[in-house]
């Protein structure tokens, strides 16, 4: 029998072939990471595995049934509210959780528990902090923040939908709409520069999107691919940024 010598380079190549491919780890980002009372907080999930069949959100450091906020079944696109649901939380199909009008009692740990197709369970924790209004100003003494309303509230394929903006701040340099929560150029839908009264649309939204000077956005002939989170970001004259988040669900006809 003839033995073949394997050099170090070949060994390294064989090792690389046998190593399992790396998979992006599920992480949760609090947007914003530190919030004031009255803010909306999005616990944004990155890299939700494709083999997840269901997930649940809990308050606290343990996944107790009495602490369950909501459960989502991916196959049936169904949501079940838990006993710890406050009436201010919305769970999205990408795993993210939106909590509206937060108070200091909302501060603390939150748990996302995922269940894959092999019935294996994984737990990921995140924490965010809610502080009182700065310098003791009461919430009603501060300017109203922008909010977004869907018109109509229920949308089906081929419908037109308006993201109607209320309380757009004054003295803005401009604003922009993005698909998702990250302000990345390839997620941008449209932007408007107030000083020069100029609007720009992303190429793939030509003929289908219209941005208005009051901040509102019109999407025409929507499809199920348009389902997801949409974010309005404003830039003030002193370069401060605020955002409003809305989830669009496009139903089949």
Structure description:
This is Carcinoembryonic antigen-related cell adhesion molecule 3-like. The protein has 253 residues and is mainly beta. The protein has 2 domains: 27-135, Immunoglobulin-like (Sandwich); 146-251, Sandwich (Immunoglobulin-like), CATH 2.60.40.10. Helix content is 4%, strand content 45%. It is built from 1 helix and 21 strands. A 6-stranded mixed beta sheet has the order 2-10-9-4-5-6, with no helix packed on it. It has a 5-stranded antiparallel beta sheet with strand order 16-15-14-19-20, with no helix packed on it. It has a 4-stranded antiparallel beta sheet with strand order 1-3-8-7, with no helix packed on it. The N and C termini lie far apart (69 Å). Residues 8-22 and 135-142 have low confidence and may be disordered.
Helix content: under 10%
CATH architecture label name of the largest domain: Sandwich
How would you write the strand order of the largest sheet?
A: 2-10-9-4-5-6
Gap between N and C termini, in Å?
69 Å
Mean pLDDT: 82
CATH superfamily of the largest domain: Immunoglobulins
Gyration radius over CA: 22 Å
């Amino acid at each position: 029998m003839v033995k073949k010598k394997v050099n170090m380079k070949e060994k390294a190549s064989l090792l690389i072939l046998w190593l399992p491919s790396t998979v992006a780890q599920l992480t949760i980002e609090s947007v914003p990471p530190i919030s004031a009372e009255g803010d909306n907080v999005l616990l944004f999930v990155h890299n939700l595995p494709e083999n997840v069949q269901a997930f649940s959100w809990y308050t606290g450091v343990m996944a107790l049934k009495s602490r369950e906020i909501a459960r989502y079944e991916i196959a049936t696109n169904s949501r079940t509210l838990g006993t710890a649901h406050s009436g201010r939380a919305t769970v999205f199909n990408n795993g993210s959780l939106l909590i509206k009008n937060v108070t200091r009692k909302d501060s603390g740990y939150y748990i996302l528990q995922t269940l894959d197709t092999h019935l294996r369970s994984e737990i990921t924790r995140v924490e965010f902090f809610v502080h009182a209004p700065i310098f003791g100003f009461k919430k009603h003494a501060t300017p109203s923040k922008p909010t977004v309303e869907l018109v109509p509230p229920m949308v089906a394929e081929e419908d037109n939908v308006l993201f109607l903006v209320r309380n757009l701040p004054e003295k803005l340099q401009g604003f922009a709409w993005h698909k998702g929560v990250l302000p990345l150029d390839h997620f941008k839908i449209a932007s408007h520069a107030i000083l020069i009264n100029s609007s720009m649309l992303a190429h793939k939204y030509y003929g289908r999107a219209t941005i208005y000077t009051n901040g509102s956005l019109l999407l025409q002939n929507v499809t199920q691919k348009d389902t997801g989170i949409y974010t309005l970001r404003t830039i003030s004259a002193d370069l401060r940024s605020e955002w409003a988040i809305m989830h669009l669900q496009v139903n089949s006809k």
